[in-house]
């Protein structure tokens, strides 16, 4: 059973990102403050949900959250910063966009950089433990999926409508045949590039 948040504070925000392990497209983060009486039977880590249920939850979260925001960091900035720093930047941007300043920041994972003077806590598998982090994972995932589906029409042979930029076999084969698109991240090392085609 998911807990509402880690502290019981009224304005504790949950943060999560989507797209960290992708070969193309942005990393997207979301920040969500839920009311302390929030509940929904479908809410879970977004990776454990069907696409249909993620979009159903997205609409419900947007209506019932105290505050929420999403933020994108581009593939160019990922190449410039590295994916960890870009992911944290996306979370910072999402927190900054909230209409309410949170009392505490709860982050999925084990790495974060302080934002302003607001205290934070990191939780490994936080999206499977706390509702507000799970809600953030849903908003981040659905926002990014919509973006990847939109740019799929520009470069349909990469199958982004299906793989969303993750390194599936069909995606890697398309890179081998057609090279990189303007949306691909180019900052993985030589070893990773070799592994890209080892299948």
Give a short overview.
The protein is α/β, with parallel strands linked by helices. It has 7 helices and 5 strands, in the order ββαβααββαααα.
Q: What is the domain total for the residues?
A: 1
Mean pLDDT, as a whole number? Answer: 93
Please outline the major beta sheet: 5 strands, mixed
H/I helix tally? 7
Structural class: alpha/beta
Strand line-up across the major sheet: 3-2-1-4-5
Overall helicity: 25-40%
CATH superfamily heading: Ribonuclease H-like superfamily/Ribonuclease H
CATH architecture annotation: 2-Layer Sandwich
Low-confidence stretches: none
Question: CATH class, anyone?
Answer: Alpha Beta
**Strand percentage:** 15-25%
Q: In sequence order, what are the helices and strands, one letter per element? A: EEHEHHEEHHHH
In total, the number of strands is: 5
| Gyration radius, in Å | 17 Å
Query: Between the first and last Cα atoms, what is the distance in angstroms?
Result: 39 Å
Principal-axis shape: globular
Q: What is the CATH T-level topology?
A: Nucleotidyltransferase, domain 5
Any chance you could write out the topology, listing elements then pairs?
Blueprint: E1 12-18, E2 27-33, H1 51-64, E3 67-73, H2 75-81, H3 83-96, E4 104-108, E5 120-123, H4 131-152, H5 160-163, H6 169-178, H7 190-196
Parallel strand pairs: 1-4, 4-5
Antiparallel strand pairs: 1-2, 2-3
Structure description:
- The protein is α/β, with parallel strands linked by helices and 199 residues long.
- The protein has one domain: 2-Layer Sandwich (Nucleotidyltransferase, domain 5), CATH 3.30.420.
- Helix content is 39%, strand content 15%.
- The chain has 7 helices and 5 strands.
- It has a 5-stranded mixed β-sheet, with helices on both faces.
- A hairpin with an 8-residue loop joins β1 and β2.
